[in-house]
Amino acid sequence: MRDFAIRLPQPTHPTLSRRALLGQATCGIGTLALAGLCQQARADHTTPLSPKQPHHTPRAKRMIFLHMRGGPAHMETFEHKPELAKRHGTNGRNGKRKLIASKWRWQQRGESGLWVSDLVKHQARHADKLCVLSGMHTDIANHTPAMLFLHTGSFTFARPSLGSWLLYGLGTANQNLPGFVSICPPLINGGTSNYGTAFLPSVYQGTAIGDIKTPVRNARIGNISNPRLGTSAQRKQLDLLQSINRDLATRAPYDTRIDGVIQSYELAFRMQAELPQVMDLSSETRSTQQMYGIGEGRRSDNFGRQCLMARRLIEAGVRHVEVCDEFWDQHGA
Question: What is the pTM of this model?
């Protein structure tokens, strides 16, 4: 009987050493990690608040809007009216009221020659950094429609606010903070419409910190923390709630408010870790606080805190921050 030898196929590659095996296996693990990162990048790009590339490279990337209701008049600050000075004390168009010129001295400032009055002489030192738009006019004299017109461009129909448009067009850099914040907004004269979205998806609405009646040092964003539940338990609770919301969204695909609620819950969960630190002004030096007028009287302290908080929010990546104050003129106490 003949013996038959079974010839096994020989490997076509040399035997791997342990070092070579670990090296090639590590490359495979790295590829898996890269795939995960790419998937996350694609997901971030598709979120409504992810940063968007504009059609040209802008010089200004974020915005602080100081809204001071009843603020100083334009003819007292940045709009020089020599003709008004000539007609001081004469009758106006209807013959019933007298024309009154500015009582402040005017000078052309900086290399640009910008006319600025002595009322804002400290700000005048930065004349070459300012852009004064003098071509605006309005015939709206009442508070409520005027404030709506200023914020939305319309006083008769619901329109998205300025901050909502910016957030819609450009997104926001920090996904752990709101892209649009209104600090101490007014409760009347337009109310939430001043930072609302109108027909834009509700995810682009502004987030209010306090209100005009609350000193900013006491202002908070409600319902972003739960002291009774830890982070893990909150995440599980939120996952259950979001699954219910997404199921509802599939049955009402045209209701953008549901998606806004989903995004708001997720943002509130992420804000817990970062927002309190951004709002905490105690980390700023005393000299910085003094530059903002903090500690120098009730009105100066409150407005200075709002401005400093706005700067910190902008530095943290928020796209648009509105600082609200009121009663700068004869309406004030």
Answer: 0.75
Sorted by sequence, the CB contacts under 8 Å of residue 8 that are 6+ apart come out as none
Neighbours of 264 (CB within 10 A): 15
How far apart (Å, rounded) are the C-alpha atoms in residues 298 and 187? 21
Q: Which residue has the tokens 């400032």?
A: 109
Amino acid 35: pLDDT: 58
Domain range summary for the chain, segments of one domain joined by +: 63-71+158-325
CA distances from 27 to 15, 24, 304, 315, 323 (A): 18, 5, 54, 38, 51
Q: What are phi and psi of 327, to 5 degrees?
A: 60, 50
pLDDT reading at 55 higher than 60: yes
User: CA–CA distance from 28 to each of 13, 36, 150, 284 (Å)?
Assistant: 19, 13, 57, 47
- 182's enclosing H/E stretch is strand 180-183
307 forms beta bridges with: none
Quote the CA–CA distance of 88 and 82 in Å, as a whole number: 10
Distance (Å, whole) CA 173 – CA 176: 9
Dig out the tokens for 303 from the structure. 């407005």
